[in-house]
Amino acid sequence: MNFFRHLGQHEAESFKRRDGADRFMEIQTIGRGAQRDIAALSTQVANSICPEQSEEVDPSKSGFFDCIEYSVSEMMLNVVQHSRGVGYVGAQYYPNQDKTQIAIADTGIGIKNSFWEWGSPFRTRCTSDLEYLKLAVGPHVSCKTHQVDPFGGGCENAGVGLTMLRDIAHSCGGDFALVSGEGALLNDAEITFPKGHGYQGTFVSFSFCRSKMDKFGEYSEAARSHIEKSNGSNGTIAEIGEIFK
Amino acid sequence: MNSKHVFKLSSEFGRFCADGGRAIDFLKNCVRPACDNNSSEIVFDLDGVRNMNSSFANALFANLVRVYGEGVLSRISIVNSRENVKKEVASSLNFGVLSLRKAVAA
Fold first, then answer.
1. Could you report the predicted ipTM of this complex, rounded to two decimals?
2. B55/A157 CB distance under 8 A
3. Whole-prediction pTM value?
């Protein structure tokens, strides 16, 4: 995975580096503040794991590719928008287990500090890192969703990325882990690390069962529906349907 | 409606629309001038867009509704959208309308 390169170790290699096509993507750095790289890097991850669906026209046959691209981009945006640090992404496909696992970590300020840094009104609701993590995976919670001026540089998203990702991972037989500070969410388990043994930045890991990902459209629709219900919506407003020609 | 603006998103963002920050810039610099002309019909052509994440969709479409109100729905149309992209856009427009209604109610 070329892990040691990112630690500054550039030793001569006497082995032949394996071609990771269809199986894994070596750890890549997520650019500092360079959002323009998000789409390209997300597509690169999806191409590394699932190149055969890259040009598929029918979305019902490209769910695996679409899911990887979608989820990786959302998590990378969190790094770029909130962390104030450097991010890293790596991915691996385990065909015998039918699973793809993706991890994104950053060296930033962590979720709790991010709420405070951006002046979120949610920031005073929690006292522990674990409580901030639980808050962050809730719908429409983001460090920036309170910034109501879309042109003011803050109101860029709706705070549903982590919520959707966790929901989709669980729906398709995968796992979800979120670690920041001294708190961790590992699927349904809530963990608090001993004082001084946490992770300063943010780490998120998720996996999907490939054989179930043809239904990515259904899973994402269900996740959106959960979020909309939590927001008081009873379905899409009728006029919106008429917009699509 | 005596003028029509067509925005082909794949020309601007490629096949995967994923960057909320760029979507805001696009809304501000390209879509807003068109919307500020009250006679304009705004068409978003999604031909060539394979995928779109919620950050991008909310940044562009939910904020479009937030800025111009529900009335903007009668001025926009979306063509050539892949089914997965269509659902993402519809959800973000819905979110924009609900956000506005909540703000008004409060």
1. 0.90
2. yes
3. 0.87
